[in-house]
UniProtKB/TrEMBL annotation:
The protein's name in its UniProt record: Tubulin epsilon chain-like isoform X2
SUPFAM superfamilies (UniProt xref): Tubulin C-terminal domain-like, Tubulin nucleotide-binding domain-like
Species of provenance: Biomphalaria glabrata
Source taxon at top rank: Eukaryota
Residue ranges occupied by any Tubulin/FtsZ GTPase domain in the UniProt entry: 55-285
Domain (Tubulin/FtsZ 2-layer sandwich): residue spans on this chain: 287-422
Amino acid sequence: MTQSIIVQGQCGNQIGCRFWDLALREYAQVNKDGVYDDSIGSFFRNVDSRHEDPANIPLGEGKGKIKSLKARAVLVDMEEGVVSELMKGPLGEVFDCRQLLTDVSGSGNNWATGHKMYGSQYKEQLSEAVRRAAEFCDCLQCFFVIHSMGGGTGSGVGTRILNLLEDDYPDVYRFVTAVYPSAEDDVITSPYNSVLAMRELTNHADCVLPIENQALVDIVNKITQALPPTKSGKRVYGVSPAVKPDSALTTGTAVGSPEEKPFDKMNNLVANLLLNLTSSARFEGSLNIDLNEITMNLVPFPKMHYLVASQTPLYCMADVKVPPRRLDQMFSDAFAKDHQMLKVDPKHSLYLACALMVRGNVELSDIRRNIDRLKPNLNFVHWNEEGWKTGLCSVAPVGQPYSLLTLANNTCIHNTFTDIRDRFTKLFKRKAHLHHYTQVDGMDMSDFTDSLESLNSVIADYYNLEQTMGQPVVMEPRLQIAS
């Protein structure tokens, strides 16, 4: 088994709060004997809290009964509020306080402050926190970086960390889960931050899973509509007997109760995405997918590593008295636009490759049958018409008989990036708010122009491929050898 380290920014810490809680629930469901095994070891260390420095217990002594778990995580935030709340909460003991890095002033929604100023100021501390986490791994395979794109810490410090990881651990895969702002975002400078950060993601990440805030909002609204009405015809979110009190989704918090955080349900969706993505690396299955196989099979060209994710069922369905979706319907849902983590419709664009990661009581013949059923309605690039990667993990998510995560490298993503570019251009043409960036040491106008050029290049790559859809394939002439 391999290990992975999760590096969390401010938004990433809120998602991480849901992820670590759900991961522990998932292991508790599978591991009834409380034994520390390789599957738990992929994200957690086993330590003896009686030691003055529990992190110094050798790895070999960590086998056997679970004593105390520490997450393989590095928590970073230039505002200490979220991390402080996390450490004071029920999950606080899971995190190693020597793998936290916080400040008090924040990045002011400014990529330059996060990337140039704090990134340089805390470079050694960031490297040390990651090194400490890496030293406790037997076989470190992947870094997961979780951050937002619209603010200053996530976009700035998050991408600076990505650069550090490439320099210090060039052979370890770097997966990024990046939360993109919606068009109605209340941070006026979010288009600048997003475009500046995207150049770093394009150049330094192995694989990026973009998540759009508006898509998460729409999915949560869809879930809410599934709550059954009471006799009065109204949906009651706090006391409805249809909602399980200790659900894997509400994590023990009643839906609509004062304790529930505003974005908990949205963060749960992203947390479940990461759990499903790593399920094959953590549990046994008849057809496991290693994380390196994702990049190998889904990224045909180095900079075209942006994957559109969708998943089904929409997890809250397990908390409501609604029968589970039929297996075939689950596959159909995964390709529907209202299940995508981006506001896109991949069915009308060109697939470069697609991965199906199934969990639970499903047979390989079920997967093959559904691929054959769906394939005629999907457009695959002519040089990769059999570009399907399938995985089957035997351990289902908590509260579900089975689930499906799809990862598609699809040209529809250029629409999302074009919207971001257009919002960037509206500000940049007027030079609005630029002085907040250029007054930071090391930042100049070339960062804006180079980032815009990088984004235009990615958009053009996807757009040009999409234009080949439906056109007759021109076969290259074969080399003739004279006899």
